[in-house]
Each structure stands twice: as C-alpha cells, then as structure tokens.
Amino acid sequence: MAMFAFTSCTAQRRAAFALVLLLAACRGDRGSASLVSPSFSNIPVPGSHGCLCAIAADRQGNIWVANDDRGAVFKLSPAGKLQTVYNASSVGISAVGNHGTIRRPLGLSIDSAGGLWILEESSFVIKISADGKMIGSFYPGGTGPASMELDRDDNLWIANQNDDQGGPGAVGMLNSNGQLIRFIYNTNTPKAQFKSPAGLAIDENGNVWVANTDGDSITELNSEGAAIARFDNTKLPSVRFNHPHAIDVDRAGDLIVLNQDSVMRLSPTGELLGHFPTTGSSMAIDQLDRLWLTSESGVSVFRVGGQLISHFDNDERVDGKYS
Fold first, then answer.
1. Is 90 exposed, middle or buried (0-12, 13-18, 19+ CB in 10 A)?
2. How many whole angstroms separate alpha carbon 152 and alpha carbon 236?
3. pLDDT in tens, 31-89
C-alpha cells in the first residue's frame, strides 16, 4: 500500500500544498488524528507556487514534496517545517547511468534505508541517498512515466504510458541499484493489455495493480511480472471504469480506484464493494484508512466508504457527510 504518493499535476496548483500540511498534522497522533485548516500564507517553502506534482512520507513522518515547475524537492518535518531543498545545484549531475539530475520531478518514493527515488518527466528516475548524495540516474524502461512504487524488497515499479517501442504502455521494475530487471509490455505479456497505464499500487502479497487510463481497465501482475487478472467494463458490467488514473490498496486489501468522475472500491476479485461520484486529480490512503483526494475545489478527506470527513478550500474547512 502506498501511504502518501501523488503523481498527477492536473488541478493541484491550489490544493497540493494544503495536503502537505494536512498530512503532516494527521501523522503526529495516529490514534486521534486532528486536522488543521491550512493557510496558504503560512506555507513554509519560499516560492512554493507551481505544479506540486508529487507527495510522499517517509517512515519518520517527514513529508516530501516535488515542485515540477521549480525543479525541486522539499523535505518538511512532521510539523511542516522546511528541512531540506534538493535541486540540480545541490545534488549535481549523476556520474552513474544516464547523467541526469533533478529537472521536472513528478513522482517520489522513499525506500527502507531512507533513500529518495525521484521520477522525472523526461523518462528517467534518480536515486538520492538518505544524506542527500546523488547515487545515480536510471532508465525506467519506457516513456511517459506516470507513477511508481517500491515493493517490500525495495524494487521500484514504474508505470509508463508508452513502451520503448512506442506502444500503448509498459511497467518497468528496477532493483535497488537502478538496474532494469523486468520490462513488462503487451508484446511479451499479451494478457496485460496495457493502454496508457497511469496508476500503480502494490498489495501486501506483492501483486502489482495497474490502472489503464485509456483502456478503462485494471491489470493485476504478480511479483514476477506475469499478468494474472484484468478487470474491465465488459467483464464486470456492474462496474463502470471511466479513465481510471490512480489506484491504491486499503488495509483490508481492497482496491480504491479513482476515475474521471468517481471513486470505486473493489475486492481483489473485482467485486464492486462501493462507489460514489466525485472528481479528483490524485489520491492516497493514509494509516487511518482514510481517503485523501485533491481536486480543483480543494482537498477532501473521506472514509473509504464515501463519508466526507473534511473538505479544505484554501483555508476554509467544511465538515459533513458526502451527499
């Protein structure tokens, strides 16, 4: 399960940094998380406007935010205090791999040793050590990178909206040293039927779930990269996928899928467990099993069943039940 991992730029220019402060607040006391209304005038990052395209939290509760427009990654304490800024000047150019650096970061993930992986818009990934040193820059096995997640062995899985032959998508897997050890696409894995894969999540069994935006479908891969299931609107007529672009796994092992016009909850076998209409650009599930959703109207926090806990529009908070 990806705790806090956002990788979509769409409609986050107002909302995403509010989410940083909200997440930082809720992680302070897991038993009785309190939500604070953010104030954009109090954002602790100089020049923080722009596309805040990715957010992640490490095991110490620090919050990491990628600003695509400014080519920087910010590290905040659990209380929201700015600790570190990584950019091309601070980390330098990689001497390993394809000589990349931080340019336009759109995805973040933190490994078990505290190393920071950065997904770049120009179709490569960068690894930074826990103490801020450049380790390397690596090819993810495709173009149009959309999302990534680390598995329990610190292998990095990446959803690419095109494969290296110009096909409709691929999933690459890098080991902890940045070596491409698996490359899964429709030619070598026909049952995957990728079509612009945008969202990616890994469950407790190590299976990889991929949301195909243009294919209106979900593909399940096992930990070896074999396609073992695929759900679409033809096979599951009670479920209507509509450009699914984000996916996560909750504590019960159920799938939470963000469509263009709704959020749906599915069992691992594809049974529809819940559904409510909403629009959103990105989402994640926190340690209290709440659904965080960013959209043009702000940031909303739901129970997975669809009950609205709070909504933040700039610095205004509205509580109530979703209707």
1. middle
2. 31
3. 333 333 333 333 344 444 555 667 777 888 787 888 877 899 988 877 777 888 999 99
Q: Which helix (H) or strand (E) holds 230?
A: strand 227-232
Q: Is the dihedral of CA 236, 238, 244, 247 positive or negative?
A: negative
The number of domains in the chain is: 1
Q: Is residue 258 part of a domain?
A: yes
Sheet holding 246-249, edge to edge: 246-249, 255-258, 262-266, 272-277
Asked whether 206 and 223 are in contact (CB, 8 A), the reply is: yes
- Residue 42, classed as helix, strand or coil, is helix
Which CATH number covers residue 111? Answer: 2.120.10.30
Residue pLDDT, tens place only, 127-150: 999 999 999 999 988 888 889 999
Cα 119 from chain centre: 11
**Phi, psi values for residue 27, rounded to 5°:** -80, -15
